[in-house]
Each structure stands twice: as C-alpha cells, then as structure tokens.
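Thread: "does anyone have the structure for this chain?"

Original post by V.I.:
We have the sequence but no experimental structure in hand. Need at least a predicted one for the grant figures.
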Amino acid sequence: MSDVHASKLRMIGFSLPALTLNMLITAVFVFVPSLYAEHRGLGAAAVGLIFLGAKLVDMIAAPAWGLFMDSYRTRWGRRRPWLTLSAPILMLAVLLLYNPPEGVTGLYLFLSLAVLYIGWDAWSISHTSWALELSRDYDRRSRITGLLQVMVMLGGILVSLVPAIMERVGTPTYEQVTSTIGKLMLVALPVTLVICLVSVPERVTPNRPHLGFRKGAAILLGNLALLRLLVANSLLTFSTYFVQGLFVFFVSYALNLEARTGFILTFLIIGGLVGLPLWVRLAERWTKHRAMQIAVTAGATTPVLLLFLPVENVVLAVAAFLLVGLNTSANEFLPRAMMADVCDHDHVQSGSERMGLYYSLLQLSSKLASGLAIFIGFSFLAFFGFDPELGLDNTPEALLRLRYLIVALPVFAYAIVIALMWRYPISRERQRNLRDQIEQNERLALQDNPSKA
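Reply from O.Q.:
Generated one for you, tokens below.
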C-alpha cells in the first residue's frame, strides 16, 4: 500500500514508454495526414473523416482496456502484462501505417489506424495508470507526471529531428521521411518496454470489493470534478492537435518553408520542454488547476504571433513556434496529474482503485478530441478553399484563411478551459483529506481480514 520510491535513474527508465508513445503520436498527427491526403491522393476531407471514423474503435477500446486492467490482477501485476502485449500490436500498426502502397485506399488507412488505436490504448493506459499509482501524494504525482511529460517532449523532438537531419544531408521524399520514422519506432518500442519492466515495481494495493455496474456508473457520473476535467482535457487536446494537424500545411505553404518543416517542428516541441519546469513549479507552489489556467492563458496569447509571420523567414518562424509550444507540456501533464486526484475521490466513494478506468476516460476524451481536430481542421481547409495538392499555387486568400484558422479555434478553446478551472473542487488540501480517508479505510479493511493484503 505504501508509495513506490526508486532512484532517479530507475524512474527515467520506467518513464521511457512515454517517449516512444509520443514519437508515435507526433508522427501520426503531424506527418501521416499529409502523407495520405497529399502524397497518396486521398484528399484532405477524406483523410479527416477517416481519422474521425477510426475513433469509433478507440471509443470502444479505451474504456474496455481500462475496465479490464482494473478488474484482473495477474501474478505479474495489473499493468505489466498488458503493456507487454501492446508492443507487438503497435509494431504491426507502424508497419502498415508508415509504408502505404501505391493506390492505397481509405479502408487501408482506417484499418491501420484501428490497429494503432487498440495497441495505443493498451500501451498508454497500462503505463500511465502504473505511474499514477506509484504515489498518493499530491505534489509527488505532479513530479512523476512531469517526468513522463519530459519523455513525451523528448519523443516528439526525436521524431522531428528525423526529417530535420534528412533534409540537412539530402533531399528525401516525404515517403522516405515517414518510412524512416516508422523504422525508428520499430526499434524503440521493444527496447523501451524492456527497460521499463525491469526498472520499477507496481505498488501493491489491497484486493478491491466487487462494484456493480449500476453503482459504479452512478459514482462515475456524479463526479463533477471528473466531468469538468474531461471537458477541459478535450479542449486542450483539440487545440494541440489542431495546430499539429495543420502545421505542415502552414509552414510549407503559408510561410513557404517546406524544406525546413522538420527543423521548425523541433522548436515547437522544445517550447513545451522549456515550459514544463515552470508548470510543475506553479502546480507545486499553488495548485494544479491554477497552473492550468496560467498555462492556457499563455496558450491563448502566443498563437496570435502566427498571424504576422513573414514568409520565408526561418528565424522568426522558429521564435514564434518556440513560444507557441510553451504551454503544450501543460496540456498533457496537468490533466493526468489531476486525474489521479479525481480518482481518489472515486476511491473514497466506491472503495475501489479504478485508475485504469479513469485514465482510459481521460485518454478517450483526448483521442476523440484529436480526431475532431483533424476532421474539423481538414474540413475547414476544404471549406475555405485551400487544397493541399496545390501547395504554393493556392490563392493568397486561401493561404490567409489558413493563418486565421490555425489561430482562432485554439484561442476559443483555451478561453473555455480557463472558465472550467475556476473554483475547481479538488485542491491540495482536499486531496490530502481524501488520501487520509483512503488509507484509514484500507487499514480497517486489513484489520478485519489480513488475508486481503
């Protein structure tokens, strides 16, 4: 029942799956849409619709994995076996997704994404639930999720360096760049998995009482902090992936810097890495929800710079995207750290530790929002007269609309998040009270029946 403590080196090893996962996420939402829409001729609107349609698989897989993992404890733990199982699923998806044949169909893309999402859910839910269960301390959870976020940002940087390096030493095709990224991930997935498994044990928890579906659902739906966090997380994710989904088109054609896309993307991700220590410090100094309000205020302000960027100016583009990226790490790490506290509220009411289910709901809100971001972004491109296949031959009006599009919707979403975090119900003091109550209940349960330990 006690917290799991490990050396910094072991915690880094444990966190490596977050690095690999974000390598995958960044490549999927930055490079894959353009690969299929522009270079395989499926069209922007069709690709956006396929990404959204594949989310139906995700909507089923995420909560199913969460419930399954929470319900069964194997001799190897509740999280380790499913993290291990997810690796070959993801490797198959990578092989399919990043090496599409000529004349590829929409069905091929849909099935590849479906396999990806099944493996992605198992990988992320098992690993993040394991991480969030390592400690019940309000501030240590921020540090643990902060470390995961460091790995997330490093994974994004590694992916962005692939095209940057390839562009520096030669003139690779877009297909060659994406294929190389896929090969890198095929190596990274099994390597980071093995290192994680040998680094940190799972925290031992008492056996949980059976919780019926009706009671469990009632507790879930009555958790107002959960509902507010899920909506906020959806809006944060929408903003992040909306920008990433349009990034290649914006940099390549609105700024006429197609040859420097990978280089500039690196600084968008570095911005998140630079901002991360600030958001962790603010979460510890004040509260997590107050830190989120500050982060999204920055996120609503800095994108305005993109409206005024001149074409063919790499230095100003790098500086602007460095600032735009500052809040992206907060968009990822703060909702996860806050979800662990929300799960404590559920634990008091249900008597069960349902971290897998709760994190799967957070994951589900992120996935649905990311699919909507691609769908809405690509649909608006077509509606506003921008055609990815025309590239620089798009009209000046279409390129100007692309600038407004990449700024306006994220700013609107961030404004709603600021309101949602006003008077958020789970503060540091409230979480500590919940933790004390959980630990007291567990001690009483062990006194009544020591065999449940």
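V.I.: this helps a lot. The chain has a mean pLDDT of 89.
O.Q.: and The radius of gyration is 22 Å.
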